[in-house]
Specification:
This protein has 459 residues and is an alpha/beta fold. The chain has one domain: Alpha-Beta Barrel (TIM Barrel). The chain has 15 helices and 15 strands. The strands form four sheets. Strands 1-2-3-4-5-7-10-12 form an eight-stranded parallel beta barrel, surrounded by five helices. Bound molecules: 6-O-phosphono-beta-D-glucopyranose. Belongs to the glycosyl hydrolase 1 family.
């Protein structure tokens, strides 16, 4: 069967500043929480490889953008580093302005639409020391930073993304100990989540006031929540998981309001964040033009069977347990489930319950541990498994579009194998492999395949 995508479909990949630029303390950049955390607890990072050790996009952006063109990209997402642009929190770093101007101009010169994120987990240490997302001050600071970016680069950026996966900042930093500042406290987590959505809304409001030519959105990792069975207790478990991990961000971003059921649960358990008068109007002003969807794997849940010990602090997990469904297909090289149809379910949910908001797949990808095992005699990674993975997801996207979904593009995570937080270089995801020592880039088999897909607008 031939799968042809709508004209103008965005083909590309995504990366982020902290994961690709390197130059961690070069060009005037100040430390982020990642630089700080690596300095204080390097053993928590895979292979003790920290954020200074990346694919050096800061120096090699030209070479990389040429490779993007070679493998058929017509669009690419990366992010701006807040700590590079405003190192002391307030003064603009001209070197950073020059760098991002050069990146954006180079992308445009190669016919690649720039999608630019403002925050991809990389809180500047300067703001973290003042409370980070727990502090209302950070909301205003973020909006100022966003406004500066819009004014500097907004004449050329096709699409802005305020945040990447805000729920991961909340889970990692304030619930489950995999991001700095490693707190485990639901009430603080709720405040952080709330402040990020206020910061998002304030940034959208600033963007609208400038009447620039592009669009603005947010990138959410939408994780469909599937119940073990149709028993009411399992259905309730999956409803609540969906509320905490998807709708707590999706509803304010698309509808400008929080789900009432979420507010009810938080009130019942005395976990409401501090809210100020006027916040409702601000959230309503944060409605997006375009939603970026990151999809890796679904969440399968069942009703909680084991009682929570009295005195255990409040967590979303009070309401459900993960369900290891027998027979589910797993990625043997990363341990995550592969469920291609999940991407269709997300798109159809957006069509039916979110006004068919324009969307695109901003990340989807297959992490592979020990990918050097698949290097052929010619030095190329023969990642047929990744081709199958992408093709399987694209088929479901195609079906969703045929059924009326407003999905406009597909970006793989990621372009070149990149540094990934605590996992560093453990899982490789790129279209292009990276030799960390020599910095040599080699297009993988999937990169060559993708070039054809993009040129044919399908497969
Ligand atoms: C996504 C993030 O959630 O997952 C990326 O947006 C991250 O920043 C990617 O690198 C892969 O994560 P991991 O842990 O498998 O390397």
């Amino acid at each position: 069967m031939q799968y042809t995508f709508p004209e103008g479909f965005w083909w590309g990949s995504a990366s982020s500043a902290a994961q690709s630029e390197g130059a961690a303390n070069v060009g005037g950049k100040a430390p982020t929480i990642w630089d700080h955390w690596f300095e204080t607890e390097p053993h928590r990072f895979h292979g003790q490889v920290g954020p200074a050790n990346t694919s050096t996009f800061y120096e090699r952006y030209r070479e990389d953008i040429a490779l993007m063109e070679q493998i058929g990209h017509n669009s690419f997402r990366t992010s701006i580093s807040w700590a590079r642009l405003l190192p002391d929190g307030h003064t603009v770093n001209q070197e950073a302005v020059d760098f991002y101007n050069k990146v954006i101009d180079e992308l445009l010169a190669k016919g690649i639409k720039p999608f630019i994120g403002l925050f991809h987990f990389d809180m500047p240490m300067y703001w973290q020391e003042q409370g980070g997302w727990e502090s209302r001050e950070t909301v205003a600071a973020f909006a100022k930073y966003a406004e500066l970016c819009f004014k500097l680069f907004g004449d050329r950026v096709a699409c802005w993304m305020t945040f990447n996966e805000p729920v991961v900042v909340v889970e990692g930093g304030y619930l489950y100990d995999f991001h700095y500042p490693n707190q485990m406290d639901f009430k603080r987590a709720a405040q952080v989540a709330y402040h990020m959505m206020l910061a998002h809304s304030l940034a959208v409001k600033c963007y609208r006031a400038l009447s620039l030519p592009g669009q603005i959105g947010i990138v959410l990792n939408l994780t469909p929540s599937y119940p073990r069975s149709s028993h009411p207790a399992d259905l309730k478990a999956s409803f609540i998981a969906d509320l905490f991990f998807n709708r707590a961000f999706l509803d304010p971003a698309v509808k400008g309001v929080y789900p009432q059921e979420l507010i009810d649960i938080l009130r019942e358990h005395d976990q409401m964040p501090v809210v100020q008068s006027g916040d409702g109007e601000l959230l309503a002003a944060g409605k997006i033009d375009l939603l970026g969807i990151n999809y890796y794997q679904p969440r399968r849940v069942k009703a909680r069977m084991t009682a929570i010990n009295p005195g255990t602090p409040f967590l979303p997990d009070w309401f459900f347990e993960n369900y290891e469904m027998p027979g589910r297909k797993m990625n043997p090289y990363r341990g995550w489930e592969i469920y291609e149809r999940g991407i269709y379910d997300i798109l159809i949910n957006l069509r039916d319950n979110y006004g068919n908001i324009p969307s695109y797949i901003s990340e989807n990808g297959m992490g592979v541990e020990g990918e050097h095992r698949f290097i052929g005699e010619d030095g190329q990674v023969k990642d047929d498994y990744r081709i199958d993975f992408i093709r399987g997801h694209l088929q479901w996207i195609h079906t969703a579009i045929a059924e009326g979904s407003n999905c406009r593009g597909y970006h793989l995570w990621t372009f070149i194998d990149n540094w990934s937080w605590m996992n560093a270089y453990k899982n490789r995801y790129g279209f292009i492999s990276l030799d960390l020592d020599s910095q040599k880039r080699t297009v993988k088999k999937s990169g060559e395949w993708f070039a054809d897909v993009s040129r044919n607008n399908g497969f």
